[in-house]
Predict the structure.
Amino acid sequence: MEEVNHTSVSQFLLTGLSDDPKLQPVLFGLFLSMYLVTVLGNLLIILAVSSDSHLHTPMYFFLSNLSLTDICFISTTVPKMLVNIQAQRKDISYIECCTQVYFLIIFIGMDNFLLSVMAFDRFVAICHPLNYTVIMSPRLCALLVLISWLIMFWVSSIHILLLKRLNFSIGTEIPHFFCDLAQLLKVATSDTLVNNIFLYVVAALLGMFPLTGILFSYSQILCSSMRTSSSVGKYKAFSTCGSHLCVVSLFYGTAFGVYLSSAVTHSSPRTVIASVMYTVVTPMLNPFIYSLRNKDVKGALGRLLSRAAFGGG
């Protein structure tokens, strides 16, 4: 296979989930349904939070940002896959591939940061309730989100600059249904040492610090709850954290699943399945977890749908 500079590579080939023609309509219908449910569910969360004054608090501000990130996250990968299935094609242009990589890194990192910030918010609310409004001021909340975006834009930009140095062969196949950075580095024909070092260092740092923050926050919440003599107080403390813990478990569980699958074997179907859980299923389930387990969100959604049904009356 001829090796050329990236500027001569006009496209890559995505192997997708299956080559079986009989499965293509099933995959198209399944992923279209999951995409629409994800967008609608997260959009309803955003509308509920913005329209209900009872939810104008730091926790729900972060939740609406998480929902927005999840919409963008799934919109980066699934629409292109649906187009390819419908057109019975596998190609993706070099520019489209780099764009997917760029935004995927940003949105994965934002999910990571937002979950950590939400854990910190619960820690302050439960362990320092008297100072909650002072500590979690609107300015701090906006600053935390802004800093998270800036960090991820910077990290993703460096990844893309390093990626543009690499050479690829004409007709290079990516054993995935989207342009995953780790898979791209595996199929490159030039030296990827610098890319891999930066990838692993950043993944370790951006994974370790937010996860450590989450674990610390919940260890303090647990200690504080155990010191509370009132059983009602304990239940209230844990009930406000239940939804967040479910989302954290789902996010990091699927993330570690992707990492372990790719570390054990190359281009395995298990890696692709784990990636589906990570990039499609998790964003789809998040709004259901929050709406089903959280009475405030459930009530806000009910009021929102009632106003919509009766024409805003």
Summary: The chain has one domain: 9-309. The CA atoms of residues 109 and 152 lie 6 Å apart. The mean pLDDT is 85. The first helix runs from residue 24 to 51.
